[in-house]
Amino acid sequence: MELHDSVSLPIVGEAEVWRLGSVTSTQDVARSLPIGSIVLADHQTAGRGRLDRRWESPEGTALLVSFVLEPNPLLSLAAGVAAAEACDPRRVRLKWPNDLLLEERKVGGILVEATQDRAICGIGINLTWSPDGAATLDQPRDDVFDRLRQEIATWTLARPDQVIERWRDLSATLGRRVRVDVSGAITEGLAEGIGPRGELIVDGVAFVAGSVTHL
Ligand code: BT5
User: Fold this and answer.
1) pTM (2 decimals)?
2) Pairing relation of β-strands 99-102 and 105-114?
């Protein structure tokens, strides 16, 4: 790991923020840090999404951050709400389970990696570059980060029903016909709702994981 300006910034509130240059993944750095830590990087050589997919971003073009948090079964949805609020709640929408969409195109993603005693919540937001078919937010990184850490603090402490209600408001998925792919098993139907544990209900069937395509 290479330290940016050879320092980590000191404690703000209870969180220590590590501002780094190039890392494999902010998730890897965060894993060994205490709860409350936040890791920011300019570049990742092995940024990842779910299911070992790659997360791409040229150096300095994205907000790449991992938060070390208490375990929370609704963290993925709470982080989505926090990220949408931080980016632009009038324009950014949430696609179940973890995509941030701007005008229907992916502008960011969330990866939660949990163990029994902690959860590492990684958030990537495209600022000035995106792959073909995706979107950029075009806002200054520090501004988005400052809002994001506030929103993460708020939404990780919110009651589950509040998280789910706000997620519904910001959803691009509910009310749409969708295709859900769970390890190659495909279901198509109407995305009707979100259950109390954050599961997606499609034609009465609850999905706790899977990849969703809006049809
Ligand atoms: C995600 O996975 O969307 C979660 C991405 C989390 C990235 C952050 S960055 C900070 C922290 N450190 C990490 O190493 N990860 C987290 P998933 O739903 O599996 O989406 C991955 C898919 O999105 C890829 O297979 C590509 O198709 C696409 N993709 C890759 N890079 C992208 C980008 N910059 N913008 C939009 N789509 C992208």
Assistant:
1) 0.93
2) antiparallel
76 pocket-lining for ligand 1 (C-beta < 6 Å): no
Protein residue whose Cα sits closest to atom 7 of ligand 1: 124
Structural domain includes residue 1: no
The rounded distance, in Å, linking the Cα atoms of 23 and 189 is: 41
Cβ–ligand 1 distance for 50 under 6 Å, the answer: yes
pLDDT at 52: 84
- Which among 39, 40, 51, 55 is the best mutation to test ligand 1's pocket, defined by most ligand atoms within 8 Å of the CB? 55
> 92 with 187, same domain?
no
Structure confidence at residue 91 (pLDDT): 97
Same domain, 98 and 135: yes
Q: First vs last Cα of the chain: how many Å apart?
A: 42
Distance 109 CA to ligand 1 centre (A): 5
Q: Are 215 and 179 in contact (CB under 8 A)?
A: yes
Mean pLDDT by runs of 10 across the 215 residues of the chain is 41 76 98 96 97 95 98 95 98 96 97 94 98 98 98 97 96 97 96 95 95 95
Shared domain check, 189 and 156: no
Return the ligand 1 atom nearest residue 106 CA: 36
Residue-range definition of the domain harbouring residue 156: 7-170
**Do 65 and 148 share a structural domain?**
yes
pLDDT score recorded for residue 12: 44
Whether 90 and 150 map to the same domain: the answer is: yes
Same domain, 159 and 205: no
Distance of CA 56 from the midpoint of ligand 1 (Å):
7
Report helix, strand and coil shares of the chain as percent, to nearest 5.
25, 40, 35
